[in-house]
Amino acid sequence: MSTLPAPGAPSPAAGPTVVVRTVPLGSEDPLLAYLPSGRPHDELLSWVRRGEGLVGWGTALTFESRGQDRFAEAEAWWREVSHRAVVRDDVQRPGTGLVCFGSFPFASDSAESARLVVPSTIVGRRDGQGWLTTISLDPQLTLLENPSVASDPEPPRDVAFADGDVSPADYAHAVAEAVKRIGAGEVDKVVLARDLVATASAPIDPRWLLRRLADRYENTWVFSVAGLVGATPELLVRRDQGLITSRVLAGTIRRTGDDAKDLALAASLARSSKDLEEHEYAVRSVAEALAPHCSSMNVPEAPFVLHLPNVMHLATDVAAVSVDDASSLTLAASLHPSAAVGGTPTARAVELIGELEHMDRGRYAGPVGWMDAHGDGAWGIALRSGALDAEDPSQITLYAGCGIVAGSDPESEVAESDAKLIPMRDALASD
């Protein structure tokens, strides 16, 4: 576990105060256009959907933790930083004032660390209201000039793809073994993932990926935290002034590109006993995890079909009213891993993932998002994503996973995983 100030700044453990200033910003420019060029990829931060959300850059503070207690340690660190902060906030909305971005590894035994990042500059927008936040350890903080739109990013060049730790053949074998284990009664569902490595001839600019994803997948939250970049359709949890919401996705079918055929496929997905069963597991796990923190909860009786450009999902939006002061990160920790990314029963399914998957997911399928000093925030599941290599910024590892149940067919699951890799593969294209 470590607490790191920005380069050249004194350690926050030595006593300096975090100074924060938020002012209104009237610009209508796209949020992602503000992300500056020439920055290391791990200093570019994003949580944007349909033109609203937050982007940040620079580093005021960072935190890392590993192991079973990674969520609790991150929460404790954030409470201490928030307690020390001196904040002047002229906007007073969730996401203004002191804010951190974060991402967490899926597994407690991952070699990857959990990360919280407090940027030095944040630009946000909500319901048409924009703002600028600056954060510093310098007590003489002066407000920066209004940020300017950055130059357009260059596309990746000469991108080549190669199998990662889990090839398509390996994945099909793992799915077949999982179906056997399900048939033997070990679990009802297990989510298995695979990886794909992309290498370009020069460092990959995450701003290119973010813009492509935002343009093509408007129903997703486009994120970037410490080199993890993606567009997730699944909101693990949002806490917004006492209202808690979660979007659950489970059950997937690939689109054909033919509108009439896709409508028929959507109808078949909504009637599929295999997919409805998988979806019910996921919704139940979310509702049970949120219940201790809620005074009331609305869980729709049936899912709807969420249409994305490459696939369609069964989706359910769960809404609840908070009954305690649990932060959005505490709620995310209580939900992780949900049945949507782990399986059912979850504990045994996660053990089975460790036995069958043969790779470290890192922060793929872990919580990713942001939180403010009041505990409000939004955390998605890091799906449809890739991790830029810390040592070689011209390389990125892409991930995709599928829920395996008794009726799963290995070749069909390979095809579904291919479909889920399309967003990141397309984002790397230069056309």
From TrEMBL:
Source superkingdom: Bacteria
Keywords from the named record: Isomerase
The keyword Isomerase belongs to this UniProt entry's keyword annotation: yes
Annotated ranges, domain Chorismate-utilising enzyme C-terminal: 169-420
Record protein name field: isochorismate synthase
Documented EC number(s): 5.4.4.2
Family from the record: Belongs to the isochorismate synthase family.
Pfam families listed in its UniProt record: Chorismate_bind
InterPro entries: ADC_synthase, Chorismate_C, IsoChor_synthase
SUPFAM superfamilies: ADC synthase
Enzyme's top EC category: isomerase
Organism expressing this protein natively: Terrabacter carboxydivorans
Catalytic activities: chorismate = isochorismate
